[in-house]
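Appendix C reproduces, verbatim, an entry submitted by the partner laboratory led by Prof. M.T., so that reviewers can inspect both the input and the predicted structure.
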Amino acid sequence: MFLPQLADCIQVQARSDATRSAPLDGAHFALNSMGVAGLFGGDEAVLIVALAQIDRKGKWLGWYNSPGSYVMGRRICQLARAGPFGIMPKVDGRPAPVQTDPAVLLEDKGWPKGPRFRGFHSRTDISETGPLSTLLMKKTTQERGVWVENPRMTQPVAVTVAQLQRSSDRFHEQESVINFDLLEPFWAIVPIVISLGTCALCGLYRDWYSFCMILLGILARGLSCVVIGSGELVLSHPKPAKGCPPGDGILGCDKELILLKGEESIINTITRATFTLRFASEDAFRRAEWCAYLLIAQAIIQLILIPQGSFFGQLMFVISLAFSWVYNLWLSCFEKQTVHLDMLMKEGMGQLSLTKFIFTTRATAVVFALLVLGSSDYQKLNSDNAEESFTESSRKIMDAYLPPDTKVWRAWKKIIIDQLKSRGDSNFNNPDSHSYPDFSQSDTSFLEDLQDAGVAWDSFRQYQKQVTGQQICQINGNHTQ
């Protein structure tokens, strides 16, 4: 029996492996990283699509090939599958409008809960306020304040007085649609022209792979902007009851406090307003879901087909994405600086006046806040009920922002409240003499020295002069007009 040698078997197997061809070895097919370029820039692209609800012309200016199609598709798919959380009543037999949470589209970016609000007159305590209060907090932190000198320093606290005035009757309405022009259409035409031009050049030189991918990107993004832009971004807030007390109060946390002064309807808008995305009917969610599938399919197909195109076609594809990405990035930065501010001024607050002070101690900041918030009550403390209400409101504010309710702090707060109830005539520098037999010498010195309150009084007088000057200038301006 013949048995081949092991060495001969190994040589035959090696020659067989060398001549065996791999699957698709003869295919003229290549995969490179050029198609991955469309996966970047998704956050900016989603933000621009979301702005189509605010800009009156935005939904018609999205016809260009944009990067980030996969991220856009995934976010829009989440919005479509989340569905409506409320159906409005039918109007004249037409389909009932539906609404959903826009935070689903933005994944809570730009829609955080605001800081705590404590009402002075109403004693309202709202642990989490609406997104407008967050935007107001961001604006006040960027404001320059007046540093108030004080020999004693513990922890600097910034206090901003936000004077809110109603500019129209919209604050008495429970809903208002946020809708205004952001940019001139000229700037949006640039990426549209670039995308259409690069697509035409690919067709002219018969690079149909790149031609189809650029065209698919234009159609997918354009349709998505039209569908999402068909919705309205609605600002809703509860309507205050008739005869309710003023809504003045303190908004903020440890190092940044905002004193809100204005009508109850405006304060409600800042503290309780919510955003909803409203569509004409539930069919909008089905259309949004198909747009999401189209965007995701575009992201996957371009990974396969773009590498099959010529170098010229791939270059055109990248050029269209580059111009679109720059435009999206620029517009998103513009939105952060301007859109939020316009939303605050036009839709949330009307006329806004900010005056900021930076105090060196928390006690000074709190006394200043009580002086500002209670300034309208000093001439009304003629009845026992009014005086008791003022005392309770002041005590709650002091307990919330000053140290715990210890014995020495209880005595200090009582002295301050007694001074505040003197119709604002006392400057806190010469308090009445008291005897404190139950306190130590250091505590007695602390109770007799009202230097922090005196600094707060001086700052309050400065603020009153500033407000009076602004009112005179406003009156003169109205007479001139």
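The two ends are 120 Å apart (CA to CA). Additional entries are available on request from the coordinating office.
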